[in-house]
Specification:
The protein is an all-beta fold. It is built from 1 helix and 15 strands; from the N terminus they run βββββαββββββββββ. Helix content is 2%, strand content 51%.
């Protein structure tokens, strides 16, 4: 998948399986407009098999060779003997209005924005994803908390000769990537998250130092993570339905039992001609 990958990404994980896919794209020096189709694994529920599909389109604009800004829209859909929809390969077709105006077509759609910018030795990357956002506040179902995530990295290149430094903060809210009704529309592929590998209902801060020369690459990473109850594979939580609009609904984040995890990892690769030796140590 396209885009900058300093750390894990929200839209497509660095640790997912490969996909059978189709891509259409138009590119010039100013922008790229592209459309993807990914074939997902089928899902068997009791005696019924649901075919699953994913489409994405993306507009990326070059920021005068100092970075880029991009907008992505993704849709997951399927059903019993449901074939892919060729119309969704149209990069100018907005998925959300399409699903609202097409009869007998249910789906799970997400939208995200990416911004990468660098100036001299400084660089920054922001990824912001929206799964569901509540506008109305008239019935209890409108109390469903917003589902979103962000991934922010800032850093310095050549802090010392050959050494870079960066710090990252990532948050994905409870219920993001999940669905309430049609389980085959969960943002999952072969039992792994399509998006961030931690799924949802977590936040993490990490920093790393990396060094590279012609033969050696080394990286030292420190991280702190907090996550709540599992909320992607399990059923969609609907506690908010038991509250009146006048009462409102609030929940802690991370939701449920909070788990905390801190750690470090040292990665080293050394090249000796055609032979590469690697070492990873976690502590």
């Amino acid at each position: 998948m396209p885009g900058i990958r300093f750390n894990e990404n929200l839209l497509f994980s660095n640790y997912s399986y490969t996909y059978d896919q189709i891509k259409l794209a138009f590119r010039n020096r100013i922008f790229e407009l592209s459309s993807f189709y990914l074939s997902l694994n089928s899902l068997a529920i009791e005696d019924t098999v649901y075919k699953r599909h994913l489409n994405e389109h993306r507009l990326s604009i070059n920021l005068f060779n100092s970075g880029y800004i991009a907008i992505n829209e993704v849709i997951v859909y399927g059903g019993v003997n449901r074939a892919m929809k060729p119309a969704l390969l149209n990069p100018l077709l907005f998925y959300y209005p399409y699903q609202k105006n097409t009869r007998y077509f249910r789906s799970n759609s997400l939208i995200s924005m990416e911004l990468f910018y660098q100036h001299r030795n400084l660089f920054g990357f922001l990824e912001f994803l929206v799964d569901d956002y509540q506008v109305d506040h008239s019935v209890s179902s409108d109390l469903e908390p917003n589902e979103y995530g962000y991934n922010l990295t800032i850093g310095i290149k050549q802090l010392l000769p050959g050494m870079n430094w960066s710090i990252n903060h990532t948050k994905v809210s409870n219920r993001t990537y999940n669905v309430e009704v049609d389980v085959h529309e969960k943002y999952i592929y072969k039992n792994l998250p399509i998006g961030h590998y931690w799924g949802n209902n977590f936040w993490e801060i990490s920093t790393k130092f990396s060094y590279a020369n012609k033969k050696t690459f080394a990286e030292l990473r420190f991280s702190y993570l907090e996550y709540g109850d599992e909320a992607l594979y399990s059923a969609f939580n609907t506690d908010y339905l038991y509250y009146a609009v006048e009462e409102g609904y609030e929940e802690n984040f991370p939701f449920g039992t909070i788990h905390k995890q801190a750690g470090s990892m040292l990665t080293i690769f050394y090249s000796m001609g055609d032979l590469v030796i690697g070492l990873k140590i976690r502590f």
